[in-house]
């Protein structure tokens, strides 16, 4: 029995949401299968499903689940956990998945900034390509400053939300306990 049926939801309505949201993610550039798996996890009350659960709900193979989860873990949108007393993995989406994803993107942007700085120096700041790269660098630096402020504001705002919304909160990867 699917989770939706177990909690009295219309499984067709859940499926329509999953496919609709997944289509939005695909339109934004996320691969199709990871989009579907992510949407299914978001729609789960527990935020946790096994490979078998995902395969049954989405009608996809274990290999498709594995590839989708690998992608989603790399971009910090899901985590893999071992079921207690079992060899089976379960996959979890956390309430702070967007925070995690943006935080990991911040590190990528810093690396891009370094590469672009080198490009400006190599191409010459007064060349058309160098000016284009310099403007790209200025954009990334501008965004980076605002993202750091936004993330701090979100953390403070989240603390003011009801305790129910913060019940799954975990510290971002790399944070001290």
Task: Explain how this protein is built.
Strand 2 (79-82) and strand 3 (89-92) form a beta hairpin. Helix 2 (11-27) crosses helix 3. With 177 residues, the protein is mainly alpha-helical. It is built from seven helices and three strands, in the order αααβααββαα. The protein has a three-stranded antiparallel beta sheet. It is elongated and about 65 Å long.
Quick tags:
177 residues, mainly alpha, 3-stranded antiparallel beta sheet, disordered C terminus
- Which class best fits the helix and strand makeup? mainly alpha
Distance between the termini: 38 Å
Radius of gyration: 20 Å
Quick one: how many beta strands? 3
What value does the average pLDDT take?
Answer: 86
Please tell me what the overall shape is: elongated
> Which strand order spans the largest sheet, edge to edge or round the barrel?
1-3-2
**Helix/strand order, N-terminal first:** HHHEHHEEHH
Low-confidence stretches: 165-177
Largest sheet geometry: 3 strands, antiparallel
Task: Please work out how many helical segments DSSP would assign.
Answer: 7
What fraction, in percent, of the residue positions are helical?
A: 55-70%
Percent of sequence in beta strands: 5-15%
């Amino acid at each position: 029995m699917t989770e939706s049926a177990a909690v009295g939801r219309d499984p067709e309505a859940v499926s329509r949401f999953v496919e609709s949201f997944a289509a939005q993610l695909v339109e934004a550039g996320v691969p199709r299968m990871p989009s579907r798996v992510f949407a299914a996890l978001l729609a789960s009350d527990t935020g946790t499903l096994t490979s078998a659960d995902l395969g049954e709900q989405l009608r996809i193979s274990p290999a498709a689940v594995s590839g989708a989860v690998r992608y989603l873990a790399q971009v910090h949108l899901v985590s893999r956990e071992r079921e207690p007393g079992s060899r089976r993995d379960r996959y979890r989406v956390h309430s702070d998945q967007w925070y995690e994803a943006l935080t990991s993107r911040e590190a990528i942007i810093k690396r891009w900034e370094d590469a672009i700085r080198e490009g400006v120096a190599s191409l010459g700041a007064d060349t058309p390509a160098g000016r284009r790269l310099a403007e790209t660098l200025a954009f990334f630096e501008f965004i980076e400053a605002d993202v750091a402020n936004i993330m701090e504001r979100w953390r403070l705002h989240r603390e003011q939300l009801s305790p129910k919304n913060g019940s799954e909160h975990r510290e971002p990867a790399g944070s001290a306990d």
